[in-house]
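Action item from last meeting closed. Structure (108 res):
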């Protein structure tokens, strides 16, 4: 019994280390998003840190339009980056979980 418990604790510690390594790796995974017409381009990391924003000169003429573009495109980029982030971390966590009947459906 204690051997199983120690094995599980070791596996959990290993999984925790893998999760931390994955979080660091996600700093290097870039997610790009563009406005529909391509006038605004945004690049984020999968950890949702903004790395680059390219604004077409035409958008600089209208403050309200630029603000609208930024809100829409940033929200789409954040949603995409969050999806990558959650998928990657869930895969690592699932890999490290002990084989407990019924847990597969819980983690989906």
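Sequence:
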């Amino acid at each position: 019994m204690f051997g199983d418990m120690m094995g599980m604790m070791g596996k959990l510690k290993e999984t925790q280390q893998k999760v931390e390594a994955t979080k660091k790796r996600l700093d290097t995974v870039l997610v790009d998003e563009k406005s529909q017409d391509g006038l605004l381009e945004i690049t984020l990391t999968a950890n949702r840190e903004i790395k680059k924003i390219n604004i077409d000169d035409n958008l600089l003429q209208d403050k309200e339009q630029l603000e609208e573009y930024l809100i829409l495109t940033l929200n789409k980029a954040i949603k995409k980056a969050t999806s990558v982030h959650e998928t990657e971390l869930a895969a690592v966590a699932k890999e490290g979980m002990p084989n407990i009947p019924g847990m597969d459906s819980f983690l989906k």
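Note appended to the action item: The two ends are 29 Å apart (CA to CA).
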